[in-house]
Amino acid sequence: MPLVRIELCDFKSYRQAMGHQTIGPFKNFTSIIGPNGAGKSNLMDAISFVLGVKSAQLRSSQLKDLVYRGRRLARTDDEDEGSEAGGIQDDDEEGEGEGTAKKAWVLAVYSDANNVEHKFQRTISTAGASEYRLNERVVTYSAYNMALIQQNILVKAKNFLVFQGDVEQVASQSPLALTRLIEQISGSLELAAEYDKAKEAQERATENATFNFTKRRGIAGEIKQYKEQKGEAERFESLCSEKDDLILRRHVFKLFQIEESIEDNSKNIVNKNEELVGLREEQRVHDKALETARAEQAKVRSSVMQKEKSIKKAEKSLDGKRPDLVAIEAQITHSTRKINHAIKTREEVARNEHKLRERVESLEKELATVRKAADKAQEEQRKAAQDNMSLSEDSLEEYRKLKASASVLAVDERQSIERLSRDEKASGRTVSQLGDRDTALLEKKHARNEELESQTEKQAELEERLSSHQADLAKARQDLNHQQSEKTRISKLEAEADEKLQGVYQQLLQAGVDRNESERELRLKETLTSLQGIFPGVRGRVVDLCKPIARKYETAMSVVLGRNIDAIVVDEEKTAIDCIEYMRNQRAGQATFIPLDTIQVKPINDKFRSFAKGARLAVDVIVSEGAVERAIHHACGNAIVCDTMEIARYVCYEKGQEVKAVTLEGTVIHKSGLITGGRSTHHTSKKWDEKDVQGLMRVRDNLKAQLRELAKQKPRGQTDENFIAEISRLESASTVIRDDLSACKLRITGLKEEMKHIEKEIKQISPELQKTRRSHAACLKKIAELTTIVNAAEDGVFKVFCERINIAHIREYEERQLKLAQEESKARLQFEAQLARLGHQVAFEQDGLTAAVGRLSHLETTITAEQANVAKHENQKSALTEELTASEDAVEQLRTELAEIQETLEEKNRKVEAVKKTATKAGKVLDLALKEIATWNDEIEKLALERSSIYRKCRLEEIQLPLLQGNLKNVPMEENLREEVAMDIDENEDGTQQIKTVQDHGIEVDFESLDDETRENGSVADFDKEIVKINTEIERMAPNLKAIERLDDVEAKLAETEREAEKARKDSKTARDEFQEVKRKRCEIFNKAYNHISDRIDQVYKDLTKGKASPMGGVAYLSLEDSEVCIDQLDTDGVVLNNFQEPYNGGIKYHAMPPMKRFRDMEQLSGGEKTVAALALLFAIHRRVVTGTAHYQPAPFFVLDEVDAALDNTNVAKIANYIRTHASEAFQFIVISLKGSLYERGHSLVGIYRDQDVNSSRTLTLDLTQYDE
Prior knowledge:
- Helices cover 63% and strands 10% of the residues.
- By secondary structure, it is an alpha+beta fold.
- Helix 6 packs across helix 22.
């Protein structure tokens, strides 16, 4: 058994009461159990402490916290009990408790594979001092740690301990942390410092060897280069000599050709002068005829312009009167519509008035009839009363007495009858009133129904009329909008075209100068175009070849360029001379030429680019093509463009720079300090736009044509005023109809509401009427019953009286008299109500008739007034129409006169063109003769200039021409081409031209070196071709004339470098071998541990997870993550350097997949699953090889502190079975657990409990092997 026992004294909760405590012996599988707080984890800390683990990992901030601290003595029993319950006190409390120790120690007895015991003891004091003893001898920590390492107990790796709560962290640690753990376990981490040192030495040696190798190769290449340059230098000197000879022969041959051409041109001029006299006289006659024709043409053109002004004035007056006519027509239309509307309304009112009158007459007739009927009924009642029987005075007196006697009979019934009669009358009146009201409501409902139908028909008619008016109004507005939009579009286009045309005119005005200047520039442009067509090397004018970067620089750049702004840029001086000759022959005026091959360009002084803010070089504010850049630099020089005069003064005066400074306004400060200012009358800045003038003229013509086309597109037909008047009429009519329609809708709404109200009242009255009728009938029934009783009593009293007057009963007499009175009253009331109703209707209809008559009168007045307005407007319209007709006739007359004058003008134009054509033809013949003579003179001058150029070139290049007389020093170095061009060719008195006199500078060339074949068949092009060929070969060469001198020095340097490179190669090989050996050892040590764990972890995990549901268990494996693989390198000898794969430089990922679950990352597993995975990893690390040779020796024992806290009973049982199965003499398990299913499987139990008497943790040991079956 590796760990035999633990002895400790005053360590944490283990107090020295009766000597030190011994815990053990420990079996192969020992379980430590006990209640919480008993000191189980303190035993774990004791094992860790004696094996050298730091205090920070023992649940203590400092070592003195590991020493036992006793409880404080209490003053009372209650306090003692509280103290005992409290246990160990904190350090912050004053005083020390009972039994507090000064030091603590732990002794571990370990037995190796040979059963030799080793005692490891560690002592700690409250002062923080530590002491280490090995086999009862005091040793250093290093010796103590080395002895532990020899037993495969790695303190740094803690490969034998799993503290409480740390088991899940084992599985969840990062790949790099897991790699470091395996390095600590394997021991490869101890080689890390040596590995880094060797690697650094290898890289340094390799870098030095590479540097020397590169240096040697560079020197060897340099030697080869110098050898090649030596032969190239000799070849270069030979070609230069051959080139100089060819150039001399070319110049001599060219001078020979020039002399012959000058003689031929002089002869041609003499022959042509004889034809000039007659041609000049003919030209004068044609010029005079042309002047006369142009004067007549100008006179007729003036008349045409006057007529056109008169026509425009008349048309303007005519256009001013037309709106007045439109306004009058609109007023007439409005008044006419108003009259028609009034007439229509009058007809409707008249019809209504007729109906009202008829109804009034009908009601008056009905009223008279009712009055007659009332009188007749009254007369009939009077006669009926007279016919009824009458009683004598005695009979009446008897009747009264009998009536009085009868009245005392059936008194209660009589009183009831009187009361019921009153009620019956009241209910009868109510029934009558409700019946009348119901009848009136029904009649009113019928009348409103008829009126509603009438109003509905009227609404439909009004809506139809409104829809028709709205459609007409929409169409009129659409036509108006279309016409206005079309006019607006055309007006907008005309305005835009006019604006553009004015801009073009303005630009043309700004770009143009006086007529003579324009003709001169036009001739210059034509000449330039001809030159470009004839001579391929003509680039163009400076002003056309460049342009300022912004418009604000135009004036300044015009001043900077000066006379060079119109200069013509050519490729070669020969081309310039040819152009000058051509212009002289064609009499095309003057021009300055800038040849790109001979102009002297001063270098640009870069200091002026940022000399002052607001000042910049002229060449920087102008853009041009790269081919003519030399000409632009020649024209600008070092001139500076300044934003203001102050900046120019600052540059020239304060800084004292001798430079030409030009402001944006054109003011110049010359190098001498003089200032030139003011504005030029020639507007030279506008020359930048001359190349755009032709384009502007084309734009002008296009805009004029566009304006003419837009004038044709203007809409014809009704004017806007007519459309507006029609729209106003339709809007007014629509408003009236809309108002009528609104009133009609309101009336319909009112009628519908009234109908609802009537129906509601009818519904309310009907139940009340029926109820009242039922009440009235019941009352009558009771009265009849009571009346029968009273009648029986009265019949007994009046029996004799009735027999005497011959009636059946007394009521017959009373009813006859009462009926007559009632009929008379009823007839009177009926006729009075009918008369009152008819009287009210007559009054109402009479009021309506009066209002209709008044409205008819008002409409008649309106019609009369509007008819008067129409008549007045018609008169105004007639007068205005006559004025318009007269104005149109006058305009037409003016147009006729204009057409006649224009015909005359056309005739004059044709005459001028005919005369001009004849004069031009004669002028062309004369100009042709003059141009031929000028061409020959120009050719002579050109040849002379070319000859002078050859002389100057030979002088500059020190070419020795063969001369018969004269000296090249007599030839001036500069030719004043401008003065030469400006010279006029003198004419003789007879109009002939003289031969151009040119200078030969007193030089005569010796042409004897030219043979006859070269003089007759030779050409300059052949010489140029040979020179270009040799020159091309020379330019391709870049000889180094010092190559021979440098060759010896480089060879000596090469020998020294080879010695240094050999030494560096040997050093590199030695350093590389040393590094490879260290790397090999580290890789072997690491791979042993890694392969051991990787080969066993899956099986361990399967053993821990398999069960009935999953017989195969889960899956677990390790994988290298991004391990660094060194690239094979070559040493200086080309040998491949073998490198090992270095897994310790990368991470190791641990993967575990529980049974019957899909793969997930370790972080996503549950706590129990992480615990099982962590235990599998730990068991794999500590598992030994049973068969074969073990490549890795793990720690001899394994201490686990409550690793089963997150496991269920099933997994705890699996862990217990695994530990029981694998526990052996070589692999010991010490497990702290609270779960019986785990510790009951152990070989022995160590029980820890708390002894409250001594305030200390105590232990009990039980050997369970005696209970094994």
